[in-house]
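Dear colleagues,

I hope this message finds you well. In preparation for our joint manuscript, I am sending the Zona pellucida sperm-binding protein 3 (Gasterosteus aculeatus aculeatus) sequence together with its predicted structure, so that both groups work from identical material. I would be grateful if you could confirm receipt.
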Amino acid sequence: MRTSTMVIVVHSASLVLLIAFSFGVADAIRTLKDGPMIDAEGREYKSANFPTDAGYPRSPQRNDGPTVRVQCTAASMIIVVKADIYKNGFLVSAEELSLGESEHSQSTQCRAVAAGDSEYIIEAELQDCGSKLTVSNDSVIYSNELIISAAAGSHGITRRARAVVPVSCHYKRTHLASSTDHQQQQLPPSLLEKLSPAAFSLKLMTGDWTGEVLPEALYIGDLLHLEASYTGPDSGQRRLFIDSCVATLSRDATSDPSYYIVENHGCLVDATEEESNARFLPRRRASSLQLQLNTFLFHDDSRNSIFITCQLKVTSVMQMSSSINKACNFVHPRWINIDGSDVCHCCGSICSQSSLDYSTNHRDVMASGTVTIGPLMIFPRK
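The corresponding structure tokens are as follows:
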């Protein structure tokens, strides 16, 4: 009789332990569903504390900080997980952690790797590992799930349940179409330095060209307002030209696929496409050029982070336009130079410098530079 009673008590204790553990994991998941913390640049940072499971010994060096942290960059989601995720002294392994459902668990970018003695990290592009995209009027959300799969012990059993932790990155949309929009964000100095090597810069501007905005989320077809400038100490005596601009899916301007917006020494070839509103605007000053164009995506490619790299150069402000120093709009059926000189006839073929022009035009290129802006996150319209 005593033996039977003891068995009943043991089974009851095991049931209580299992129920307590299950509710503990559920509470942890609910913690991550609380409202997101969004920084000044519109990126969400989330963290959660997993509660200590009842009945398990506590680690002697218990850390009360969060055991799962999510950092959102402009193009990726970074998840940092502590090995003692439940704060009970039992450590999970890297093999037990993955981002996304099972079909993504074998992809390298969706697996955890060690980041020290007691932490693991998963870094994946925003659209990878089965992430789901939600777009509203004022935000863009990438959501996914961190999967904690309990590994089997040496006898084929486990005492931990599979857990699923929702993770997400929230971004505020950048509205560029309206000049009356007062929700624009200013470009931080750290990003400005990256976009402005030497004295050349390429900036994303508001619709009325009065201020600079963050290169964040846009809908396909939205107008981009780009301003290329030269700000060297001699800028008052220089005229800036955009030699070429190419759009790619990475910062590598030589990568595939690619699409040339400006080529052939200043020909705005994007303006020849149907439904394009691309054009150079009349100059406000010689040392800058303003360019507007519609956003686009690459066909049959799910990636939506676009980079634009431009080759810029300056000549003497007294130097006349030439076949290699020009800014040409396409106004069907002809090319027109915004600086007046009729030098755009070569845009339909190959623009090269004649031997008679070489000694003057080539010599008068005072400085040149390469600038990149991005990533610009572009989404299909609903």
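For the figure legend, we might mention the following. The first helix runs from residue 2 to 32. The longest strand covers residues 365-379.

With kind regards,
E.M.
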